[in-house]
Amino acid sequence: MDLNKLQTDVHEWANDQFGPRQPSERLIGAAEEFGELFQWKLEEIVPLLHAARSFGKTCHHHLKEDQGIKGSPEFHRAKIKDSLGDIFIFLIDYCELRGWSYEDIIRETWEEVSQRDYKNDPKFGLARYEGQDER
């Protein structure tokens, strides 16, 4: 999997679906997904807790950079990059503990997400979810 290509593809899809966005919107979206992850029964919680801690650090430095306090923009950007790398590492470890391929999960998720069309179906993005009411 080419993560740089995936990053470009996701960015282009999000631009098409949602138009201009702020980085903070993407962090809020990631926080929502973290919340969903923690709703499930977890057998190996420690890597997820570390990932959540790193995510909190990412949000902290993003906020402080936006506010222009507690360090230079370069300092906060370096801390954000470090935290994002930590999140990735902890989630890879979590997947390994569960016997899952993180690459497969990313590929399968992108295959599903890239088919959503929120411009034409703002409520569901033309995607069906388990347990979702029929239209």
Fold blueprint:
Blueprint: H1 3-18, H2 23-37, H3 46-67, H4 73-98, H5 102-113
Helix pairs in contact: 2-3, 3-4
Structure overview:
The structure is a single chain. The chain has 135 residues and is an all-alpha fold. It contains five helices and no strands. Helix 2 runs antiparallel to helix 3 and helix 3 packs antiparallel against helix 4. 9% of the residues are buried. The model has no long low-confidence stretch (mean pLDDT 87).
What's this entry about, in short?
This protein is mostly helical and 135 residues long. Helices cover 67% and strands 0% of the residues.
State the helix count.
5
Ends distance: 36 Å
Radius of gyration, in angstroms, nearest whole number: 17 Å
What average pLDDT do the residues reach? Answer: 87
Largest sheet report: none
- Written as H for each helix and E for each strand, in order along the chain, the element string is HHHHH
Shape: globular
Supply database-style keywords.
135 residues; mainly alpha; 5 helices
